[in-house]
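TICKET: design request
STATUS: open
ATTACHED STRUCTURE:
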């Protein structure tokens, strides 16, 4: 367990490991990669765990997003997993509580432009004038069940990414009028407060970088996101 500023940050949970890769569940509150302030982060934890400096971070989760990640232990595995991600062969699905009701499955397509100064993605709809550096963002949203929080209607939604843009789910959901519970960056000031954006990476499937066997891992909602049954 990490200790920082008198707060306990839970260590990741390892779900699978071989000589090429590790699949783990990252807890909310833990950075994927270190920042200048030296906060505890997954890469440093893994370096200590494997006993060497190299860690191949194939993809990232925001600090307060929990759930599944695959990390390479060797450069060849990292290269092949990155290629699988770029080719759409590394499938990722997320669960999120959104404010409002999503009545049916939907496919959302927008264009996102990351503002590095504010660490926020601006959303442009299809057909809307946009800067040339904006990037396409596509995902599928499927309602799982309904719930409520502090009197507000919620929908638990499964999001399947077709692209991997910064804050993609959070930005696109807010643009569709369904901001994530607890998302102060993309939500509204009047939204009910929650400890973090209610987002969890619950499913990952990819071809093993050495054997090409397709492997699948699932991670249920953590206790703090089990709001209703």
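STATUS: resolved
RESOLUTION: sequence designed for all positions
ATTACHED SEQUENCE:
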């Amino acid at each position: 367990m990490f200790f920082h500023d008198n707060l306990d940050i839970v260590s990741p949970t390892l779900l699978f490991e071989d000589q090429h890769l590790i699949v783990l569940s990252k807890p909310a509150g833990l950075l994927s990669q270190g920042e200048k302030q030296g906060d505890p982060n997954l890469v440093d934890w893994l370096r200590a765990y494997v006993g060497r400096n190299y860690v191949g971070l194939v993809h990232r989760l925001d600090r307060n997003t929990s759930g599944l990640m695959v990390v390479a232990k060797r450069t060849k595995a990292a290269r092949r997993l990155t290629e699988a991600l770029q080719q759409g062969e590394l499938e990722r699905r997320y669960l999120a509580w959104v404010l409002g009701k999503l009545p049916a499955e939907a496919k959302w397509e927008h264009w996102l432009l990351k503002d590095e100064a504010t660490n926020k993605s601006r959303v442009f709809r299809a057909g809307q004038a946009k800067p040339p550096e904006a990037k396409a963002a596509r995902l599928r949203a499927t309602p799982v069940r309904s719930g409520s929080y502090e009197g507000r209607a919620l929908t638990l939604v499964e999001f399947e990414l077709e692209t991997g843009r910064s804050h993609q789910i959070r930005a696109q959901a807010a643009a569709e009028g369904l901001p994530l519970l607890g998302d102060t960056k993309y939500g509204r000031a009047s939204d009910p407060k929650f400890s973090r954006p209610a987002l969890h990476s619950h499913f990952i499937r990819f071809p093993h970088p050495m054997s090409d066997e397709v492997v699948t891992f699932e991670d249920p909602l953590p206790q703090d996101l089990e709001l209703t049954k």
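CLOSING REMARK: The mean pLDDT is 91. The chain has two domains: 2-90, 94-199.
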